[in-house]
Backbone:
C-alpha cells in the first residue's frame, strides 16, 4: 500500500478480487443467488475488513465467506 502525506492510497484491486472469489464460492454453494448483481451485504463485509487493515485478497474472501454464512438470515 502506498502512503503519501498521511493519506493512504487504497488497493481497490484486493477488494474486487476478494469479492469475486467469495461471490463465486457462495453462488456455487447455493448460499447466494446466481445473478450478476453485486451483493451489497457481502461487499460491505469485505470493505469493512479491508478498512480494518486486512489487505490479502484470499484472507479477505475466506473471512467474508465465513461471516456471510454465519450472519445469513434463517429461512422461516
Residues:
Amino acid at each position: 500500500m502506498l502512503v503519501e502525506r498521511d493519506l493512504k492510497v487504497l488497493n481497490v484491486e484486493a477488494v474486487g478480487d476478494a469479492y469475486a472469489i467469495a461471490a463465486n464460492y457462495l453462488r456455487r454453494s447455493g448460499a447466494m443467488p446466481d445473478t450478476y448483481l453485486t451483493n451489497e451485504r457481502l461487499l460491505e463485509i469485505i470493505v469493512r475488513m479491508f478498512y480494518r487493515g486486512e489487505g490479502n485478497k484470499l484472507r479477505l474472501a475466506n473471512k467474508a465467506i465465513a461471516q456471510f454464512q454465519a450472519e445469513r438470515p434463517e429461512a422461516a
Remarks:
- The chain is about 60% helix and 10% strand.
- Residues 17 and 69 are 19 Å apart (CA to CA).
- The radius of gyration is 14 Å.
